[in-house]
Amino acid sequence: MKHIQSAKNPKIKEWKKLLTKKERDKSGTFLVEGFHLVEEALQGNQIKEIIISENKDMPPGWDYGDIPVTMVTDEIIGQLADTETPQGVFAVCSQERSSEAVKGKRFLLIDAVQDPGNLGTMIRTADAAGIDAVIVGEGSVDSYNPKVLRSAQGSHFHLPVKRGNLFDWVGRLKENNVPVYGTALENAREYTKYESSESFALIVGNEGSGVNKELLANTDANLYIPIFGKSESLNVAVAAGILLYHLRK
Amino acid sequence: MKHIQSAKNPKIKEWKKLLTKKERDKSGTFLVEGFHLVEEALQGNQIKEIIISENKDMPPGWDYGDIPVTMVTDEIIGQLADTETPQGVFAVCSQERSSEAVKGKRFLLIDAVQDPGNLGTMIRTADAAGIDAVIVGEGSVDSYNPKVLRSAQGSHFHLPVKRGNLFDWVGRLKENNVPVYGTALENAREYTKYESSESFALIVGNEGSGVNKELLANTDANLYIPIFGKSESLNVAVAAGILLYHLRK
C-alpha cells in the first residue's frame, strides 16, 4: 500500500482535478466518496484505485483484488471531499459503463435538470423502478457531480447513466416502437389514462421550464399529474417517481 | 416605511433570532425569504411584517394593506438570509395556522424525517395531492427551518402543518375510522393491493431507520413499494409521492 503524506504529491493534483466535469471527461473517470459508494463501485467492477485515510481501515469484507490502494493524510482527504465530514475513503472509477450499448425496454430521459439532488434521486428511483437506462440530455447537471452521486446512492453502478441528445433518442426509440411520453402541465393527458406497459420512455424536464417544447412535439403523448390542492407543481423527482411506478407496475 | 441602516438596531437582533427553532417557537413566528414565498404568505394572510432591501421595490401587485414594511441595507439582508444570493425580501409570519383545529379526511404523518429538503418536498407533495394536513412528529427537522420552507415552495400557507405526537394521532384517527397506513420494507403488503380511498392517513419515516416499530404495530396496515432493480430503497419524499398519489387518485 502506498502512503502519501505530502499534499504536494502530484497524485493529489490529479485526483483534485476530478472535482471538475472537464477533467472527469478528459480522463474518463470520476471520484466517489464514502464507504457505501465505494462498496457499490467495487461490486460494479468500476474502480481504478482506492484512496483511504491513514486513520481508517479497509473494511475486511472488501474484495479489492489488485486494485491499488493509497493511504493519505486527513488533510488530503479534506481537500478531495465534497462533504463537510468526509468518511475518509474515495475511489477513482471508470465512466466506462456509460459507453455500454443500451438495451432494454424502459427508459428515463432527463432534459436540462439543474439540481444535483433531483438528478441523483431520479437515477436512484429509475434503478428502483427497474428502468433499463437513464439518458441525461444536454443542459443537465453532470451525472458524475459529487452531489448527484451521493443522492443516487450507488445506482450509477446498477444501470447505465448515459449522456445523449434527446432528439436523437426520441427518434430512435420511436423507430423501435417504444412509446415515448413527455411530461407537461398544458396540452397533456392525465397520467392515469395510460396503463402500465411493457416498454416506454418517459421524459422529465427542467425544474422551472419543464421539458423543451420541441421535444414535447415529438412524443407519442404528454402526461400530467393532477394537482388536487393549491401547490403549483410537484418536485421533478417526485413526479418522475409517481409516473415511473405508474407506468411500470 | 421605516428605514433601518444600522446593523446594531435592536429590530435586526429580533429578526435574527428567528433563525433558531427555539426563538421561533418562543415568538410563535417564523421568517420566509424571497418574492414567491412572501407572496404566498400574503395570500395566506399570515404576515406580521415585511423586510425589504433598500435596493428593491415592493412588487406593484402586492396588496399588503397596513402590514408594516421596513427597508434595510443589503448587509442586513445578508445577515438574515439562508441563501447565498438572497432576493432581498423577507416576511415575519405567524405560526398561527398550525394551531388551527385539523379537519379532513386525508393526512400525512411524518416520523423523524431529518433532511429539510425531504420534509419540505413532502409538504409540497401533500398539498398537490390534496392532503388535508401534515403532522410532523417528534425527532423531525423543524418545519419552519428555512430550507424546509424553500423546498415546500409556499405550501405551508396552503394546508396546516402541525407538530404532534404520532401515537396520539394514530389513536385518534383510528377512533374516527380513518384507515392508518404505515410504510415498511418488511412485514408489509405491496401498496398496489390497496385501492384509493376517501379517507386515509399515511405514515412515512426516518431516512435511515424508517417508521418507528411501535407505531407500525398500531397501524391498520403497512405498505411497501416494490424494488424492481438493485437500489436498496427509495428516497422518502419520492416514496411519499408514489403512495399519496396512489391512495388519492
Automatic annotation (TrEMBL), chains A, B:
One of its GO terms (molecular function) is RNA binding. The keyword Kinase does not apply. The keyword Methyltransferase applies. One of its GO terms (biological process) is methylation. GO terms for cellular component: cytoplasm. Pfam families: MRM3-like_sub_bind, SpoU_methylase. Residues 31-99 form the RNA 2-O ribose methyltransferase substrate binding domain. InterPro entries: Alpha/beta_knot_MTases, MRM3-like_sub_bind, Ribosomal_eL30-like_sf, rRNA_Methyltransferase, SpoU_MeTrfase, SpoU_subst-bd, tRNA_m1G_MTases_N. It comes from the Bacteria. This is RNA methyltransferase. Belongs to the class IV-like SAM-binding methyltransferase superfamily. RNA methyltransferase TrmH family. Keywords: Methyltransferase, Transferase.
